[in-house]
Structures are given as C-alpha cells and as structure tokens.
Target: Proton-coupled amino acid transporter-like protein CG1139 isoform X1
Amino acid sequence: MDTIKYSMIFWNRDSGSTKMTHEKLRYDDDPDIIRRLFHEDSDDDMSSQQTNLAFEPDDAFTKCTNDTGGKTKKDLYTLDVKDTKSRFDEYDPYEHRTVERPTTNTETLLHLLKGSLGTGILAMPKAFHHSGYIFGLVGTIIIGLICTYCIHLLVRAEYVLCKRKKVPSMTYPTTVEEAFANGPLPLRKFAPYSGHMVNAFLLIYQIGTCCVYIVFIAENIQAVQKVYSEKISLVYLMLMFLLPLILLNWVRNLKLLAPFSTLANLITLVSFGIVLYFLIDEGPTFKDREPLGEVENLPLFFGTVLFALEAIGVIMPLENEMKTPKSFGGGCGVLNSGMFTIIFLYVGMGLLGYLTYGEAVEGTITTSLPVENILAQVVMLMLALAIFITYALQCYVAVDITWNEYLAPRVSKGKRKLFYEYCIRTLIVLITFGIAAAVPELDLFISLFGALCLSALGIAIPALVDMCTYWHDYEGGRFYFGVIKNLLIVTFGIFGLIVGTYTSLSKIVDKFNK
Model:
C-alpha cells in the first residue's frame, strides 16, 4: 500500500486552538477525517496506524485497546485505509447534481459561444492593428490555447474538490477557497479571503464590461447620427439612454428579459454575418499592412484578446447545469469544441478586419464600415440595440455579487430592503456611466479590463487552484513538474496583468489629458 502525504489538523482540546501540519500517512482525501489531540512531544508511530488520543471516530475507524505499561488504558483507533478510500472514490459529484432543467451538450456549446461572442470580437481588428497580422495570428492562437488549458485546470479541480467535500458542485469563489485551504501554508492563510478576491475581480470585470457596452452603444449611434445632422457629443448621447438603462436594470427577474435576450442574440448573429460580408467585399490586402506591430502596443493586444476570448464567469455555471457534465472536458468535449471555434472566429475577424482597413481601423469594426451605406447603418443600430438589451444581463452579475452576496444579508427585511436594492442597481449603472463618460475610448477600456481582470481570473488563479488541489497528492518529479508548470503560468498571467494594465492606464491618462 502506497504512503502519501496527508493534511492533518491538530486540535488542542484545552485551548481550543488548531494547528495544521503535513505528515506521511496512508490516505489523503478529506482533512476532516483525522483529528487528534496535539502534543508538542508527540512521537507516535505514523507508519502503520494512526494513534488518536482524543476524538470521536466515524465508521471508518475500528477501536482497539492499548496497555500503557500498567498505567491507565487508552483507546486507540486504526483507520482502514482501503475501505475508506474506496468509500470516498464511490462518491461522484456528477451523480448527485439536481438540476431543474439540465442542458444538453449542444445547448451548452451554444451558450458558451453566446457568452464569448460579444463586443470583444468586434475589437479584434484593432488588436491586430496593435500587434501586426503575423504576431496577431500566432498570439491569438497561443493565448486561446493557454486560456482553454487553464479552464480545464479549473473545471478538473472543482470536480476533485467536490469529490473530497462530498458536494455536487461549487462556484468559482468557493472552488478557489477550498483549493487554497489545501495548498501550501502561505495560501492556506489566505484561503478565507480568496473567495472575496475572486468576487472582486469578477465585479470589476462586469463593471468594465458594462462601461464597454455604454461606449459601444454611443459610438455606433453617433456614427449614424452624424451622417444626417450635426455631430452630437458621445457624453450627450450616453445621457440620452442613461434613464432607459437604469429602468432596464430595475428588472429583478431575468425571465422577463429572456425573450429580449433571444432577440438580441438573433440580431447579433445576423449583424456579424453582414459585417463579414463588408470585410470580404471591401477586399483585404497585405499592402501597407504591418506583420509585426510596435512592442509598446503589444500589451494592448494581449488585454483585448483576453477580454474577447475569456468567458470565465459562465464556464462553471454551464458545466454545473449540464445533463452529462463528463462531456464538458475531454479532447473532443464541449469546452474544446467551443473554444477552438471561438479562436477560429476571432482570428478570422481580427485578420480580415485589419487587412481590410489597416491603420484606419477603429476600436470597433462596425464604425469602420462605410457609414454612408444604408446596410452598414442598419448593422450599427442593430448591434447598438442588441448590446443595450444585453447590458442588463451583464449588470445582473454585478448586482448579484454586490447585493445578494454582501449587502442584502446585512439589511433587515422590509420595504426598505427593496428600496436599498433599487438604490444599488441604480448606483451600479451610474458608476458605469461615469467611467464611460470620463474616457469614452472603447479599445482602451477593453484592453484595460481584459488585462486587469482576466489575466487573474482566466490564467493565474486557475493555475494556483490546480497547484493547491494536488499539493499533497503528488511526490517526486511529478510534484515538481506540476509546481514549476503552474508557477510559470501564474507568472505569465501576473506579468500580463501588470504590463497590460499599466499600458492601458497610461494610454487612458494621455487621452484624458488631451
């Protein structure tokens, strides 16, 4: 029988304090299964059985008696490793999930595509403008593969942690918290706060997405409006639809928005087809197109691609709602099929858009279309309407984190609670409006929030979760390979976060000063 590492909790019954250590034992599944009284001078034999001086055993332990040299006898408990491990292996989280309306593989794939195909794909030509068409092509594929791999790490870690805790599913913040609690000592100390860290990144990302949506709506309306009358400032246009956005965000039941969401998806799909028609009709060319962009602009490319590709906020909910969640991973699973399709579409849109418009490409490809063309005007207004509807769905996540997870539990029930909720919903819209109106630069916003949030949520944190989840499982070369591999991914993510955020903020400050 192999001996592996185990996270053991020492509990001092007199002081009520706990102390975590790591020792060689024959079993590693649940840190709650072994508790023993802590003695500073304890030198128990750990090789064949675990001596427990004071604790209440479960069914996995058998009781025996030890004669302590004529003194009082003490109860010892021996853990039957084989029986216990097989008992834990029998628990499959997938079989214990109760979902009211589980989704099929095809439905999950469509939801994944819908969650990833938004304003980000329309910003890909600008990203290729920053990187050059060769670097953009290769870079998008590499970043896409890294993101896909990191999502696999996160989903796999969630399954293992659910198996250990014997729960059907976990959210992203809960998965991070449970993983950190099993990892190295510095991360174990940070575990109670790790869920809040994830929520903070998710909240900032959703706020940023809403800012991008407001700027996108205003820019596309302005592009059409200035054809027929004197140009209206973007800020004034934002003010015109500020009240409708607030009222839309007051809708507390998402089911009421479902028909409009379906309409928005249909509009988006048709609009993308028309945009591709314009790109092909205009005639892409390699003449005067740069294969490699300026180095100082590469962080903007990185942030934009991350913002466009990542749908980390919907990954775990989608997997948890599947009828056959085992089909989500795997070589030909839903995740790979969806992400490879997304990467292909993003590379195609970015490459065609940049080769067609070159240096003249705008932050969103729609405003680069020939605005005098009626069909192009229709596309801009259709997408503005679709994004307007989708704004409420993006804002719902920010409201859910802010209100439902943090503020609502602290407010007593009554009429005031509903009033406070509406105040929070209004405040979130006003915050996104204020940020968007201050610096209405679509491409810089996309790059900023992509680098700031998704470098952490989509790359660094999943690698840390994977490392912590298996921290006590692997030994020798496999252990060191896993640690080095994950630390390299974490370093890549943190480097992208710092450099991408700094570059985007620098550009925004320059624009703001002008």
